[in-house]
Write a structure and sequence with these properties.
Keywords: Oxidoreductase. This is Short-chain dehydrogenase. It comes from Natrinema saccharevitans. One of its GO terms (molecular function) is oxidoreductase activity. The protein contains 10 helices and 8 strands. It has an 8-stranded mixed beta sheet with strand order 3-2-1-4-5-6-7-8, sandwiched between helices. By secondary structure, the chain is an alpha/beta fold. The chain has a single domain, classed as Rossmann fold (3-Layer(aba) Sandwich). Helix 5 packs across helix 10.
């Protein structure tokens, strides 16, 4: 399908939360959602950078309905504060914020940062916003979780989830992105079991030109690697606007399906317009998904008011 930003349907009357909305994929998705009439709540680690990004969108789209709120996915107290003050009903939650291939560090709660921000922060946020998502109202709400093609090399190491014994930045990133897909599918199974008016969808942006790729070299102090990555972003990557299309499709398209995985359909799934794709074999392991769910709930202290998946549902 040649689905582009021009195909985003009218979003008037809809309220959408986007994490990491001030840059990259999140910024481009926010721009197009606002252009099409949505009220977008920009959940950003830095409210100041979020406000600057919102001002930029308003210059391009006068009247854009944007709210900027602080939400640091690396600090569960910040996640809880954001959820507690969000009184509005929301139609879509886009779990987009993330970090990639950075030197080992820990979140405010002592989690390895990539696993803590990319997966645990969004697991907690989604659970805390279930009531806002209106699971018993029409039309269906959606939870979109942004993963990466790198999830295909990932595995969930329950013996060393925080990579304390052996840290490889790419292995840690791959684990966090596999966790994103496992979470999206497990959430869909639980929503189906609850007969909820909601769908959980996983996406990946392909290789998009954002600052995400530069943060690892910046944090490790490697000017050579940063320069090399900047060249790759310019020569090989598609634009951030193109990378946002799978997210926009999952969030807005009438044909987007719960339990699906969408990504660019072009060269090596790295660029192009969105299509439904198969994720890695490990991502469909329901036993791993349920164990990860239980561990994530224990680590974050967030429980979901959803039943265990019944045997006759699948995602």
């Amino acid at each position: 399908m040649d689905w582009t930003a021009e195909d985003v349907p009218d979003q008037s009357g809809r309220t959408i939360v986007v994490t990491g909305a001030n840059s990259g994929i999140g910024l481009e998705a926010t721009r197009e959602l606002a252009r099409n009439g949505a009220t977008v709540i920009m959940a950003c680690r830095s409210a100041e950078r979020g406000a600057d990004a919102a001002d930029g969108i308003r210059e391009e789209i006068p009247g854009a309905d944007l709210r900027v709120e602080a939400c640091d996915l690396g600090d569960l107290a910040s996640v809880r504060d954001f959820a507690a003050q969000l009184e509005a009903e929301i139609d879509v939650l886009v779990n987009n914020a993330g970090v990639m291939a950075i030197p080992r560090s820990e979140t405010a709660d002592g989690f390895e940062t990539q696993f803590g921000v990319n997966h645990l922060g969004h697991f907690a946020l989604t659970g805390l916003l279930l009531e806002n998502l209106g699971l018993e109202t029409e039309p269906d709400s959606r939870i979109v979780t942004v993963s990466s093609g790198v999830h295909e090399r990932g595995r969930i190491d329950f013996d060393d989830l925080q990579h304390e014994d052996d840290y490889d930045k790419w292995d840690a990133y791959a684990q966090s992105k596999l966790a994103n897909v496992l979470f999206a599918y497990e959430l869909e199974r639980r929503l189906l079991t609850a007969d909820a008016n909601a769908a959980s969808v996983a996406v990946h942006p392909g290789y998009a030109n954002t600052r995400l790729q530069l943060r690892g070299p910046e944090q490790s102090g490697s000017r050579l690697r940063k320069a090399g990555m900047a060249v790759l972003n310019t020569v090989v990557a598609q634009s951030a606007a193109m990378g946002a299309l799978p997210t926009l499709y999952a969030a807005t398209a009438p044909g987007a399906e719960g339990g699906a995985y969408y990504g660019p359909g072009g060269l090596m799934n790295m660029r192009g317009t969105p299509e439904r794709q198969a994720s890695s074999d490990r991502s469909y392991d329901e036993e791993t998904a349920r164990r990860l769910w239980d561990v994530s709930s224990e680590l974050t202290g967030v429980t979901y008011d959803l039943p265990e998946p019944s045997a006759d549902v699948s995602a």
